Amino acid sequence: MTTAFVLGGGGVLGAVEVGMLRALLERGIAPDLVLGTSVGALNGAMVARQPDLSVVDRLTELWAEVAQSREVYGDRALRTVRRAVSTGTHIYSSKPLRLRLEEEFGETRFEDLPVTFGVCAASIERAAEHWFTSGPIVPAILASAAVPGLLPPAEVDGEHFLDGGLVNSIPVGRAVELGATRIFVLQVGRIDRPLTVPSRPWQVARVSFEVARRHRFMRDMATIPDGVEAHVLPAGGTSARDDSLRAHRDFGGVQARIDATYDASRAYLDEALDD
Length: 275
Hints:
This protein is α/β, with parallel strands linked by helices. Helix 1 packs parallel to helix 10, helix 2 packs antiparallel against helix 6 and helix 5 runs antiparallel to helix 6.
């Protein structure tokens, strides 16, 4: 049996994946393969480097630190406006995230990790899904997490990348392609919430993105071959409020979300795996 952890994108809601990881690792379920997109690439890198229960404490600390400092999306409003005007493409600098990742991972390479790890990003020049599977992991995570409009495109070896969620937000199909026979999907809860017709200009992009990402995920789930076991773990502590325009800066209630998701995921696993 080849077990894959597939960690989807979701910005600040990515904290809920920590609760899912705790529920899985407490049951002795460890990955042979880890795939991550956007914030799922960050969480995935942590568990691929340290695939045991101790990673949960480190991830919890990391999310608490980010919530307290708001270092990634912490610029003042005037500074973000000035940056948007001067660059024309984004409102936040990628430097705080890059420095935080370098502090955490240093020069760690994919080849150094004890678990096979892949990071999804969207290539601008090739208009294609790209998988980082070798080389240093920090540039790969930065590329996968380059949210359009919020952070600048990330350049890696002369190529430019945007957030992997644009092409494969929850890469279940990739896990199947790589031979996974048991897949645990760690997602932030948005796929379960109904969409409504946008009524404001700024809602159009969000709804369009959600349609695209959900379509890809549902298609991949519907085409999972016989003999492959797939589990979509439930997210707790998230709601439609988290899909608002300002939600990317709302780090409030991180621990509550982790705990609620842990409880929900543990209950799911107790029922699904003990049948």
